[in-house]
Amino acid sequence: MGNIEEMTGDLVDHHKQLIKSFTDCLGGKPKWGDLGVNITCTNSTYDYTIESISFNAEKGERISSVLLTPKSIEKPFPVILCHHGFYSNKDLMLFGEDTNGPSNDGVPLSRMTRFGLAVMAIDGRAHGNRTSEKFKLPWKFGKPTEIPRPSRITDPKAYEESIWEDFEWSNRQAVIDGNSLGALETWDAVRAIDYLETRSDINTQKIGTFGHSRGGDIAWYLSLVDPRVKAICTSGCMQTFEACINFRRDAGAHAWIPNIRNIGSRQELVSALAPRPLLALEGAEDHDPMGEKPMWDALTNVYKVMGVPNNFEYHRLPGGHGNYLKEISSVDQISRWFKQFL
């Protein structure tokens, strides 16, 4: 028994050092002032109440979000903070549509309110309400410097290219300021939890986080730096740094935080979430299995050593990148996971 306790203690100490080093990689919290909360829309016509909320990040940056709270459940509610993938936004994630039209990306996460969960989704940088109707072009003599942003509905390829360009240029600006977009988006998520803590209808002892693809990375980044997160679910993001490089996946700027690999492997970093509950979902046709296996092996071992093997589950589900999120059963599985542990 003594050897197991000693091993667990060493592991906890190692995780604390990893988390500290990871937080150092993020460069420290931005200089935040007041939250400056603005609630622009409230709608109670469904089985849940919808609030459109924005609040301050660093100077000149507003975080746009939507919060759904169940009507028929006793307050305060457990809450799930959600992070969308590339080219999506908070509205597509929660409702399956935005002002431009519908999407077939997945089952709307508003469904999670049926399980008595409040659900908040925030727009990533250069996505949703955090982008503009105009798209900037490289300066060329005598040529226009911006054009209307392509339509997500009628020209989805051009739309996605415009979002990608804006995201990458946002990262270039972050880099010359001594930061990274992955860090800024992590702190945006921390700021969202700061806002949730101001609400009497939210149980801030029961905060979970879910993210798909880009959002899956943000979910585990957030959970490393913020112990207020009590349960985590990731989707479409669990592969080693080496696999990302070898197979050119996870290409977005959010995934490439300077110096991160020098403090630990990706499997070591994600393992530092233990013993908090972690559900990881991946498509069977999404990533090379050899890039995923070291993640699963490390996580399975760590949760076992810490005496909570049931706090970790991973599932390789049919199809490619996030296809399983188009199934009601998958969203219900995620909801039940959070309901079990929050």
Which SSEs are present, and which pair or pack?
Blueprint: H1 2-25, E1 38-43, E2 48-56, E3 62-70, E4 77-83, H2 90-95, E5 97-98, E6 101-102, E7 118-122, E8 134-136, E9 146-148, H3 156-176, H4 181-196, E10 202-212, H5 214-225, E11 229-235, H6 241-247, H7 260-263, H8 266-271, E12 278-283, H9 289-305, E13 312-317, H10 328-341
Helix pairs in contact: 4-5
Polypeptide structure, described:
The protein is globular. It has 342 residues and is an alpha/beta fold. Strand 1 (38-43) and strand 2 (48-56) form a beta hairpin. It has a 9-stranded mixed sheet with strand order 1-2-3-7-4-10-11-12-13, with helices on both faces. It starts with a helix and ends with a helix. Helix 4 packs across helix 5. The chain contains 10 helices and 13 strands. The chain has a single domain, classed as Rossmann fold, CATH 3.40.50. It has helices spanning 2-25, 90-95, 156-176, 181-196, 214-225, 241-247, 260-263, 266-271, 289-305, 328-341; strands at residues 38-43, 48-56, 62-70, 77-83, 97-98, 101-102, 118-122, 134-136, 146-148, 202-212, 229-235, 278-283, 312-317. Helices cover 37% and strands 22% of the residues.
CATH topology: Rossmann fold
**SSE pattern:** HEEEEHEEEEEHHEHEHHHEHEH
* CATH C-level class: Alpha Beta
Structural class: alpha/beta
Write a short abstract of this structure.
By secondary structure, this protein is α/β, with parallel strands linked by helices.
